[in-house]
Amino acid sequence: MDALSGLLYGLSVAVRPENLFLVFAGCFLGTLIGVLPGIGPVGAISILLPMTFQLAPTGAIIMLAGIYYGVMYGGSTTSILVNVPGETASVITCLDGYQMARQGRAGPALGIAAFGSFFAGTIGLVGLQLMANPLSRIALKFGPPEYFALIMLGFALITYLSYGSKLKACVMALLGLILSGVGLDPITSQERMTFGILNLFEGIGVAPLAMGLFGVAEVFNNLGALSSGNIVKVRITKLFPSKLDWLQAKWAMVRGTAIGFLLGILPGGGPVLATFVAYGVEKRVAKNPERFGKGAIEGVASPEAANNAAASTSFIPFLTLGIPPNVVLAVLLGAFMVHGIVPGPLLIKDHPDIFWGLVGSMYIGNVVLVILNLPLIPLWVQVLRVPGKILYPLVLLFCLVGAFSINNNVFDILVMIIFGIVGYLCRQNGYEGAPLILSFVLGPMFEVNFRRSLLMSQGSFSIFFTRPIALGAMIFSLGLAMFPIYKLLGKRFKGL
Amino acid sequence: MNGTITLPFFKADHREIMDIRDIISGIVCLFISVFVFTTSLRLGVGALHDPGPGFILFWASILLAICTCILFGISLLKRTEPVSRSNAWNGVDRRNAIIVMAALIAYCLVLPKFGYPISTFALMLVLFSLGRMKPWMIILGSLITVLLSYYLFDHLLQTPLPRGLLRF
Asked: Based on the structure, what is the number of domains in chain B?
C-alpha cells in the first residue's frame, strides 16, 4: 500500500463516527490536562490511559494520540496567559508569549501558537506518512545487534540531554533498567526480585509506575507549594495575528518546523529539545535579537512549530522500529502493549487499519485542535481559576481509580503510590524521572537483544561493531558518553 | 536542621558544605546496587557466550555503584555558597505531602474491606481538609465527589470498583 492510498484508507477509518468522537475526546481531554500547570504529557497519558481500556485497540490508540497532541497544544495556553508552562516543551513559550500577553497581545500570541502548531504538525504528519513504509522495510533487516545499538543510543541521548546533573540522569537510567528486570526472566523464565509476590511475576506495570512517578508526584509537589500563576487580567479580543505578525512569524514557523521535524526522529530528542534549539536559532538569525524575551512573536511561533513538528515525527521511529524516541512515547508504548499492539516494522503490514487509521486521525486531530484551541480559550482560562486545593485531590482520585482499573487490582494502586513517593523524593533531590521511565520501558528490549546478540556471536562483542547500522549507533553512543568527560578535561587543561 | 552538614576539618573561610540530601540519596543508591549485585550472583551471571538471568543486573549494579561513588566525590569536592545552601529546605512544606502519603497507603489497606464509596469518602475528607475549607464544604464536596465519580466509573465506564463488606 503506497502512502496516498494508505492515507485514504486511514481517513476512511478515522472518519467513522466512533473514531471521530474519540479524536475529539482525546484532543479535548489532552488540551484540558495540558492546560493544567505541571501535569505534562506523560502524566496526562498516564492519568487518561485507563479511560481507553474499554475501547477497541484502534479507537484506544486514536484517542491516546489525540491526548498526546492535545497536551502539546494545551501547554502553550498556560505559558502565554499565566507564565507557568503547562508542560516542559512549553517552557520556552513563556519567555515571549507571556510578555506579549502583558502588552495586550495575548490573542495574537495564542493565535500564532495555534496556527504554527497546525502548520508544523501537518508537515510532520506528511513526513510520517512518506517515511513510514520505506523505514519499515529497512527495519525488517534489523537484527538483535541493530536494535541493541539503537536502544543504547537512546539511553545515551536521554542521559546526555537531561537538564539537571548528567550523572544523576545516569543513575536514574540504571535504576530504570534494574526495575525492568523485576519479574520473570524473558529467556529462562526464572523469577527475579519478585520477593515471592505473585503480582510481581509479570513485572512492575508501566502504567502505575508512570502515573506515580509523574502524575502523583506532581500532586505531592503541588500540595506543599501550590503554584499560583496570576491570570493575565486582560480581555482576549483578537485571536488572529495581524498582517505584520504573519510577516514576522512566517519564516520562524518554517525554521521551527524543520528543526522539530529532524529532532523528533532522533532517539532522546523530541519536542522539548526541539523547542530550545528552535528558540536559540531564531535568536541567532534575528536582525534585532534584543527583542527576544520582550514579546517577539518569532519567540512564540518557532518553538511552538518545533514542538508540534517533533511531536508528529517522533512517531516515525516509534511506529516503524518500535523504539520510542522520547519518554512520552515510551509510556505510549506501554499503552499500546496493554491493548495488545506491538509497534514495529510489522505494524503496517499486520495492522494497517491501526497504523493508517492513526495517521488519518492525526490529520483530523490537527484540524480539531485549531478549532478547539481558539474558541475555547475562555474555558481554559476558567479551568485555571479552579483552586489547587480542589483540583489536585480530584486529579489524585482520578489516578487512583485509573490505576485500579488496569487489572482491577489494589496492588497497582500501591505501586502507583510508592512510585509517587519515589518521584516526589527524586524531585526534591534533583533526580529526573524521564531517564528512569525510558530505560524501564526499553530495558526488556535492551536485555533480550543484547543476550541474543551475544548468543549469535558466541560471546564476541565484535558483532556490534561489524554491522554498519549497529556500528554507527555504537560510535555515536560512545561519543556522547565520552563528550562530558572530554569537556571536563578540556576545562581542567585550560585552567592550568 | 537546615539540610546541610559542615565538615569540621576545613577552615572557616573555605568551609566545604555537603547537602545531606546527596548523602542520603547516595546511600540509598549504594544499598540498591549492593542488593542487586548479590541478587544477580544468586541468579547466575553466566558467560559472555551464554549470558544468564543475572547478567544485565550484575553490570547495572556495578555501574550504579560507580556513578554513586562519583556523585559522592563530586558533592564532597564541590564548593558551595553557605548562604544559598542554608536555604536547602526552605519553601518546601512537606507536612501536607506526608499526610497525603499516609492517607493513600491507608486507603489501599481499607479499600478491599470497606469498598470504594466509604474508603473514597474518607480519603476525600482528608484531602479537602488540607485546603483549609469550611467543614460543611469539606463534607459536601467529598460526598459529591464520591457520588459523581462512582456514577462515572462504575456505571458509565463499567469499571468494577471494589464493593467491600457492605457490597456497594
From this structure: 2
Give the Cα separation of B116 and B163 in Å (integer): 6
d(CA A48, CA A52): 7
The residue of chain B with its CA nearest to that of A187 is B53
Q: Determine whether the interchain pair A446/B43 forms a contact, defined as Cβ–Cβ distance below 8 Å.
A: no
Closest CA to B116 of B157, B165, B46, B73: B165
Residue B106 scores a pLDDT above 90: yes
Cβ–Cβ under 8 Å, residues B120 and A397: yes
Point out the domain boundary residue: B85, B113, B133: B85
- pTM to 2 decimals? 0.76
Give domain status of residue B150, yes or no. yes
Q: List the grid coordinates of A448.
A: 533480550
Highest-pLDDT range among A318-332, A471-485, B123-137: B123-137
A54 and B CB contact within 8 Å: yes
pLDDT above 60 for B8: no
Range of the domain at B135: 94-156
Q: Min CA distance, A213 vs chain B (Å)?
A: 14
Which of chain A's residues have a Cβ under 8 Å away from the Cβ of B68? Answer: 171
Residue type, A436: L
Tell which of B65, B85, B105 closes a domain: B85
Q: Which residue of A has its CA nearest to B115?
A: A410
Distance (Å) from the alpha carbon of B144 to chain A's nearest alpha carbon: 11
Helix axes A217-224, B94-129, angle to 10 degrees: 90
**Comparing C-alpha atoms, which of A232, A285, A273, A276 is closest to residue A104?**
A232
A204: left (phi over 0), alpha (psi -120 to 50) or beta: beta
ipTM of the shown complex: 0.84
**How far is the C-alpha of A84 from the C-alpha of A267, rounded, in Å?**
27
> Is B167 inside any structural domain?
no
B106 vs A458, residue with greater confidence: B106
In a domain, B116, yes or no: yes
Closest residue, chain A, to B141 (C-alpha): A390
Please check whether residues B37 and B99 belong to one and the same domain: no
Task: Give the DSSP H or E segment for A284.
Answer: helix A271-285
* Strand, coil or helix: A192: strand
Q: Of residues A156 and A119, which shows the higher confidence score?
A: A119
Please count the CA atoms within 13 angstroms of the CA of A95 that sit on its side-chain side: 21
Task: Note whether B145 contacts A394, CB cutoff 8 Å.
Answer: yes
Angle between helices B94-129 and A388-407 in degrees, nearest 10: 90
Residue recorded with cell 547516595: B26
Q: What are phi and psi of B146, to 5 degrees?
A: -65, -45
With an 8 Å Cβ cutoff, are B112 and A190 in contact?
no
Query: Which of A51, A167, A174, A391 to probe the B interface (max B CBs under 10 A)?
Result: A174
Cβ within 8 Å, pair A192-B61: no
In a domain, B64, yes or no: yes
First vs last Cα of chain B: how many Å apart? 48
The pLDDT tens digits for A187-237 are 888 899 998 888 888 889 877 887 788 778 878 877 754 444 444 455 566
DSSP result, B98-151 = HHHHHHHHHHHHHHHHHHHHHHHHHHHHHHHHTTT--HHHHHHHHHHHHHHHHI
A-chain residue closest to B153, CA distance? A401
Quote the CA–CA distance of B125 and B148 in Å, as a whole number: 15
